[in-house]
TrEMBL record:
The keyword Oxidoreductase applies. The keyword ATP-binding does not apply. Pfam families: Acyl-CoA_dh_1, Acyl-CoA_dh_N. Its cofactor is FAD. InterPro entries: Acyl-CoA_Oxase/DH_mid-dom_sf (IPR046373), AcylCo_DH-like_C (IPR036250), AcylCo_DH/oxidase_C (IPR009075), AcylCoA_DH/ox_N (IPR013786), AcylCoA_DH/ox_N_sf (IPR037069), AcylCoA_DH/oxidase_NM_dom_sf (IPR009100). Residues 6-118 form the Acyl-CoA dehydrogenase/oxidase N-terminal domain. This is Acyl-CoA dehydrogenase. Keywords: FAD, Flavoprotein, Oxidoreductase. Residues 253-376 form the Acyl-CoA dehydrogenase/oxidase C-terminal domain. Belongs to the acyl-CoA dehydrogenase family. One of its GO terms (molecular function) is acyl-CoA dehydrogenase activity. It comes from Streptomyces antibioticus.
Amino acid sequence: MDPSFTAEQDEIRRTLRELLHKRCGFEELRAAVGTPAGHDRALWTVLAEQLGLPGLALSEAYGGVGCPVTDLALAAEELGRALAPSPFLATSVLAAPLILALGTDAQRTAVLPRLADGSLTAALAVPAPRLTTALALTCANDGAWAGDGRAGGIQARRTGDGWRLYGEAAQVLDGHSAGLLVVAAHTGGFVRSRVLLFLVPGDAPGLVRTRQTALDATRPQGRVQLRDVAAEPLGGEDGDVTGALAAVGNSAAAVLACEAVGAAGRVLERTVEYAGQREQFGRAIGSFQAVQHRLADVYVALQAARSAAYYAAWAAGHGERAGGLALAQALQALRTAAGEAIQVHGGIGFTWEHEAHLYFKRAAGDDLLFGPVHRLRAHAADEAGLFAGAEVAV
């Protein structure tokens, strides 16, 4: 791999950072998460029209830019620095690649251009807490996780005029506001059980959606209830759904890792800045060796996580799996950086209103949604056969 970035990639990062600095400060961020959608729709429009962010990784045939996964990950790093709440992850990282991989020509033509120009947002609806299972990040996704093969989760049944869905999915990223849902549903009962993906418009009759209170308000989530809702299968019924989900999970993990690295880098910058301003015993606390050592440890962990995230993004574009392990490294680095930020900021750092807690909540929330870290690492070790044949001492 070539570790250097192209001029175009540097330009994407610079332009996005400048825009977010102007439009997504902490005052704007708090106002955005308080809206019903949970994000600033005007900012999303600007990101779509000026930067083409929603269609960054989609081909030009569908109105996209045609960039590799690395460009998507670099954009996510800048979004992570600002903790910018947006439909980027749900739409561009999770839903759009699934529609591209499994959808029919008609479905791609009808949906992808609207996703690329930002006029339509989408969300992947998977029963909580099975998202990491569906994306093959913490275990194999070859089971009946969408409905457990029995009542519960989301069930699909065939009728004379198509398919009908019933069930519930909680903790769906942007599930309360997305214009299109990609729903994972269990079909066929015990004997012929399998998981298929279905397209459900956001205004479909029988669809009930509510926003949920989440630990991390910058990552808005919704509860999706399907009450005998008509749905269209995504692609044919013989498509490799689990394989497509696993591939999307690998690239999504790389993008999430870069996003976490961006957040960790920003909170470390703010902490170092504050350590040079806060005084104790007549001198800045940043001059104390103990504080320097703690922040140096954070910096080393951050740089290791950044290297792993960049490699995972490159590897995802070349058909290799490294996303899960990179995500584990990045989430651990973010949690460490946010925790040290609270400690160094002292009394004000322990108040919920301080910005350090926004980063800490992002770290804890992502660990709950996409982890935990030890399971990400354990599954990566199993995939690599790291402990195959090893005897466990009792």
